[in-house]
Amino acid sequence: MATIHKVKAAAAVVVIGGADRYLYQGAVVPDGVDTKDLDRLVKAGLLEKVEVKTAAEAEADADAKAKQDADAAAAAKAKADADAKAKADADAKAKANTK
């Protein structure tokens, strides 16, 4: 997980490269803001720290979900095939017994 900062208040002013930058509620604070300023703005309640998944973590989760879905589909197909075979065998046996 990675930590980002988002604007919690209606607005916050951050300094990036010596220039003031106004960010509004919900905005993600870009890289380049001094750590001390981030800490000060968090303490003041203007920013909040948010844990987000990295691209690699999100990709790993998607891969795991895709594998889980594929395994479930394979299991469902195997069950359907087994059920169809059992029905065909039962039908053949019933037909043989009626002769």
Low-confidence stretches: none
The H/E string reads EEEHEH
Number of helices: 2
Mean pLDDT: 92
Q: How helical, in percent, are the residues?
A: 40-55%
Strand content is 15-25%
Secondary structure class reads alpha+beta
Please give the number of β-strands: 4
Shape: rod-shaped
The main sheet orders its strands as: 1-4
Main sheet characteristics: 2 strands, antiparallel
Distance between the termini: 69 Å
Write down the Rg: 29 Å
Describe the protein's architecture and organization.
- With 99 residues, the protein is an alpha+beta fold.
- It contains 2 helices and 4 strands, in the order βββαβα.
- The protein has a two-stranded antiparallel ribbon with strand order 1-4.
Keywords:
alpha+beta, two-stranded antiparallel ribbon, two-stranded antiparallel sheet, 2 helices
Please provide a brief summary of the model.
53% of the residues lie in helices and 24% in strands. With 99 residues, it is an alpha+beta fold.
What's the arrangement of secondary structure elements?
Elements: E1 2-7, E2 11-16, E3 19-24, H1 35-43, E4 47-52, H2 55-97
Antiparallel strand pairs: 1-4, 2-3
